Each structure stands twice: as structure tokens, then as C-alpha cells.
């Protein structure tokens, strides 16, 4: 049986990896969508422009294609920008999910929605799925609101996948990621400040894509934490990158988050306990050094 899978945000890093893992599968009919033109170098898959904040566009695409599965990777994720442009943040992160949920329910589609570790306040990480959220920023509040939309609907053919610091190689990405920023800075040996009081579980984009596809393949519903297997401070992540590439970290100055005066509050310690995803889905992500080796082999 062939499953028709529609992916939103296919120009983003996670969207690209999901497309790459699905496009050659004989049991999948793939529909890639994103706002604007397709930014992939190899455009060897079915692409349709879609602005998910437009209820009309969502309805037209969903009515036309009637997908079995919708994987929503589209989001406004720049945490400080969300503080500055709360209306746009809400439109993309919440209102658009309402549109997708409505159409998914109409067609019986399995809706898989991406969320974030930032729904937690970071006081007691790492977190399990059963732990209580307490968002600190507008971005985090918008993502929790999107989760509540799904959970409080009377439609149960849904899954929410939360994740943390996604990194990897991609085509024409609008945003960079921590791993490549750190590697580039250490190669230049320019002085950099790195926080030592934030703790996260870095997640290889390919692993997260596999997790999302496992949810689709297994028709899984409910909440799953999908991240890398271990939690490190941001400083330790940078130090491990330096050690892996044999780059000096003498240029790194540890600092506290409070000194950055960022507009949006960040949770100090998140990280995930991913036992549920391992047991239910067979999710088996790479640790940081294994992921770095994987990325080196792509170049």
C-alpha cells in the first residue's frame, strides 16, 4: 500500500532530510511544500508552494491531494525574533496549525507536528513526555499553544514530536546551526563567548527525520521526545567539537546567559529522556561525535 505523505517546511533543514529519506521509497507518494520557491539543488521530487498561514491555500492543497500523512516542520524558530514580531510568530506557529488540523481531520490524515524543548522552563531537565511544560518566551508559548490545539481537539490521529538543537548540512538554509558555527569559529581562532549554564541534547537532522518517519510508518500517535541521546552544556558541545577536529579552544571564553541580555528568556537545562521513542518507535540517534563523523562523510 502506498502512503501519500505531505511535508510542510520542505526548504528547512528537517524538511530537507525528511524529503531525502522519503523521495525514493516505492511505498510513499511524496508532496513537498514550503513558502515560496523550492530551494533544493536537486529538485527531483514533487514540490508545491504552500503558505500554511493561508487557510485557503491549506484547504486547496489538502482537498486536491488528500494526504494520508502530514508532517508539519514549518515554524518560526528564531526565539528573539518571535519576541519582536509576535503576530507573525503566532500566525505561523499556532494559526497555521489550526488550518492543518482542520484539513487533516476532514481527510483523516495522520498529522505529525514538530515542537520544542523550550516548552519547559529548564529548572529540572532532562525531561520526559509526562513532565509539565512551563514556557518562558513568546516562541515557547506559541509552540505550547500549538500542542494544546492538537491535544484539545477531538481528533486523535495526531502526534507531536518535540526536539532540541537540530544540526546538519542543507541546501540554501535561511539559518545556520550551532555545530557549524562552533567549528568555523574554532578554525578561525577568533575570540568567542560561549554560555556554560545552558544544557541541551544536540540532535542530528537525519536522526530527527528518521524519528518523524517512524511515527508515520508505525501510525503512532501521542507525544514523543526526539533528540540526541545525551545532554551537554553549550560550552561542552563546543569543547567536544574542538577535540573532535583537533582544534584549540583557547579562544573560547565561558560566560553566563544573563550577560547576553537576550530579548527572550532561555530555559537553563532541558535535554530529553528518549526511552519512549526508543521503545515504541525503534528510534536510535547518534551521539555528538558519531554525528560529526556522519557529517564529515557527507562532504
Q: Total number of helical segments? A: 10
Question: CATH fold name, please?
Answer: Rossmann fold
Structural class: alpha/beta
In the CATH hierarchy, what is the superfamily?
Answer: NAD(P)-binding Rossmann-like Domain
User: What's the CATH C level?
Assistant: Alpha Beta
Number of domains: 1
Tell me about the largest β-sheet. 7 strands, parallel
Work out the radius of gyration. Answer: 19 Å
CATH-level-2 architecture: 3-Layer(aba) Sandwich
Strands ordered across the widest β-sheet: 3-2-1-4-5-6-11
Q: Write down the overall mean pLDDT.
A: 96
Percent range for helical residues? 25-40%
Low-confidence stretches: none
Q: What proportion strand?
A: 15-25%
**Number of distinct beta strands:** 13
Shape: globular
Distance between the termini: 35 Å
The ordered H/E elements are EHEEHEHHEHEEHEEEHEEHEHH
SSE blueprint and pairings:
Blueprint lengths: L2 E6 L4 H10 L5 E7 L12 E3 L5 H11 L3 E4 L6 H6 L1 H22 L2 E7 L21 H14 L6 E6 L2 E2 L10 H11 L3 E4 L3 E2 L2 E2 H13 L4 E4 L6 E2 H11 L7 E4 L19 H7 L6 H9 L3
Parallel strand pairs: 1-2, 1-4, 2-3, 4-5, 5-6, 6-11, 7-10, 8-13
Antiparallel strand pairs: 9-12
Helix pairs in contact: 1-7, 2-4, 4-5, 6-8
Short précis:
The protein is of the alpha/beta class and 299 residues long. The protein is 38% helix and 18% strand. It has helices at 13-22, 55-65, 79-84, 86-107, 138-151, 178-188, 205-217, 234-244, 275-281, 288-296, and strands at 3-8, 28-34, 47-49, 69-72, 110-116, 158-163, 166-167, 192-195, 199-200, 203-204, 222-225, 232-233, 252-255.
